[in-house]
Amino acid sequence: WEPFFTTKEEGAGTGFGLSTTYGIIKQNKGYIFCESEPGKGTKFFIYLPLYEGESAESSQLVDESSESEMTGVKGKKILFCEDDASVRKVISKMLTSSGFDIIEAVDGEDALVKFKENIDDICCVVSDNVTPKKSGVDLYEGIIEINPNIRFVMISGYSADTEKMTELQKNKNFRFLQKPIKPTLLKKTIMELTEESDD
After folding, report:
1. Band of residue 3 on the pLDDT scale cut at 50, 70, 90
2. What are phi and psi of 119, to 5 degrees?
3. Alpha-carbon distance 62 to 5, whole Å?
4. pTM here?
5. DSSP state for residue 150 in the 8-state scheme
6. Helices 183-198 and 85-97: angle between axes, nearest 10 degrees
7. Does residue 183 lie in a domain region?
8. For the Response regulatory domain, which residue ranges apply (predicted)?
9. How is residue 181 annotated by DSSP?
10. How many domains in the chain?
């Protein structure tokens, strides 16, 4: 479950897949166990708390709140850069279900190209800091040369306590989130940034 550990060859994996999975499950008060036998395979067992359901009244309130939130974000286009396919799929699905329109990028260079192609539509960029070809910091610096007012969320397994990251966080349009990230926090952060851009 340790971050940065991967059995893939250098440059082919970030080592965050299982770490992110573990973080999401623990945040939901669940458990995950692994059984592995050389030459036979690996089994993962995931246990999550039983959903007890809600009363019709509380369910209606949740539905109305969710509908209101989705109305606020519907049509907002987010560029999401993550080279780990499994992590990219999970987070993209979560953001899409929240009403955002997601453009996926597999590395920093791909993200910069897609930003230029959709420059008038993208309201926020979300990127892992450790991506092939161009880091998240390099991507951010390349993007603000094109649009200095772009909203940007950097996610990383590394600490934000660095001189460069401290400097970047002085920008009101920049946010840093530590991995493993909580999906609800990412959604809230994006909504806050994009709502500010609407003011």
Report:
1. very low
2. -55, -35
3. 39
4. 0.65
5. -
6. 60
7. yes
8. 77-194
9. P
10. 1
